[in-house]
Amino acid sequence: MRRMRTLRAVLTATVTAVATAGLAVLGGGSAQAATPLPAHVFAPYFEAWTGESPAALAAQSGAKHLTMAFIQTASKGSCTPYWNGDSGMPIAASTFGSDIKTIQSRGGDVIPSFGGYTADTTGTEIADSCTDVGQIAAAYEKVITTYDLSRLDMDIEVDSLDNSAGIDRRNKAIKQVQDWAAANGRKVEISYTLPTTTSGLASSGLAVLRNAVSNGARVDVANIMTFDYYDNATHNMANDTQTAAQGLYNQLAQLYPGKTSAQLWGMIGVTEMPGVDDFGPAETFTLANATQVYNWAVSKGINTLSFWALQRDNGSCPGGAAADNCSGIQQNTWDFSHIFEPFTSGTTAPTNDFSVAASPDSGSVAAGSSATTTVKTAVTAGQAQSVNLTVSGAPAGVTASLSPTSVTAGGSSTLTVSTTSAAVSGTYTLTVTGSNASANHSATYTLTITGGSGHQCTATPWNATSVYTGGTQVSHKGHNWKAKWWTQGEEPGTTGQWGVWQDLGAC
Ranges for the GH18 domain (predicted)? Predict the structure, then answer.
């Protein structure tokens, strides 16, 4: 998955036994079987570099399964995987382990994704970076055993689509892992996430799957990114999803002639981008599109329904361009998630359901003072049930509380936000989540604090003429930022989540 594409990416989209010792050293876990994913699963992408909790957002959105992006090496030539290529985020229980266990305890799971736009353009996608097939396989196995998972995703695009040596190493490593899993009674699925045209995979994406076949590597899901076509054409994004998937179906039928029609559709995954994609308003995926795609996906029996990304599923920037944290269209928070949620295992919406809203949904307060808002619930289906309420997202110097913390759907609660003089001035988003045995829904409250005396930014201010190398931290417009690689003249906050500057949060 990616944000802004290079010209090269635009052109691309248009047109036996395992090395046991290596696995044992890196894996750090047994091969006991994880719970397989459902035959039909909704698993939106979670941006793992934001500092947010995947378990919390899964609960708030109602998405039980997440595709977590991304895993890559810290530098080209390395064989060691990290979350986001950050050496401070190793593949270990200390990184996301608690969140993943929580998600699994709720009946869901995660799908770690290797690669992504940044890795695929910097040589840090592990099969591009590492030339030892055994070590690549060991890295995959380590992720599987560390988090007790049953599927890995390979997000291959831009430069990685042209790296024939990397493609071959990756598929050889996948075959090794599949042999290891089979020998240990463990089911491991592999999905490939690939760019698409409106009529199916381009030749480069198809070549990845052909190489998998030639190496005996089983591809369980071919997941196409049905957005960012960059063809200057008029688009109905739902119709284009269907033609792209039909084209993929025809390609898979040639690659796997022994499969039935149902089996071929059961290999297909679709990933959308809610709202305005990177190309602009001409490629806008609407809520009506989402409903059409959901109904089509159910009728065809595809395997995976997803979107990029969970953090964009809100309407906080209507009329805007593609953004890291909002859809650019008018919508309620989690609207896209709620449309796609019932896809998992073919389930239906809860018999007894409810909604949550904050009124007003924003407020401003001087540091040292308090503000209140009313959290309203309503019955949207069936009978009124008890709803437990929680609030998250309060920054340092701010206390948020609800009274009462449990209501019967249709009732209200008061959210009180109290600040101290040490609170840091700025704008923050608090999330109120309502949950019961059958559903989770949430609402947001935007809090603006003025006159705070909290700590100020201490990192060196960003300078347009200075040269910054990877790992350097600066402050700019009330936030700390870390450079991912060499840069000069690129302003923090303007390069997007795939750009050079990583937002470390308010300071």
Answer: 40-330
pLDDT at residue 281, as a whole number:
94
Q: Which domains does the chain have, with CATH numbers?
A: 33-346 (3.20.20.80), 353-450 (2.60.40.10), 467-506 (2.10.10.20)
**CA–CA separation, 369 vs 453, rounded Å?**
13
> What is the value of pTM for the model shown?
0.67
pLDDT value of residue 8: 31
Tell me the backbone φ, ψ of residue 434, rounded to 5 degrees.
-105, 135
Q: 312 phi and psi, to 5 degrees?
A: -90, -5
pLDDT tens by residue, 19-65: 333 333 333 444 445 788 999 999 999 999 999 999 999 999 999 99
pLDDT at residue 238, as a whole number: 96
Give 433 or 235, the one with higher predicted confidence.
Answer: 235
Residue 499 CA: distances (Å) to CA of 118, 133, 251, 294, 484: 8, 30, 34, 32, 8
- Three-state DSSP at 346 gives helix
Nearest to 139 by CA among 161, 165, 169, 167: 169
Query: Which tokens hold the place of 455?
Result: 């700590």
Is the omega angle on the peptide bond into residue 36 within 30 degrees of 0, that is, cis? no
Average pLDDT over every residue of 358-378: 92
Report the pLDDT averaged over residues 271-281.
Answer: 95
The SS3 call for residue 126 is helix
Q: How far apart are CA 211 and CA 207, in angstroms?
A: 6
The tens digit of pLDDT for each residue in 2-22 reads 443 333 333 333 333 333 333
Whole-angstrom distance, CA of residue 486 vs CA of residue 470: 6
DSSP result, 223-254: EEE-----S-----HHHHHHHHHHHHHHHHHH
**Dihedral sign computed on CA atoms, order 198, 203, 204, 205:** positive
How many angstroms separate the CA atoms of 165 and 123, rounded?
Answer: 12
Helix intervals (H) in 321-451: 335-340
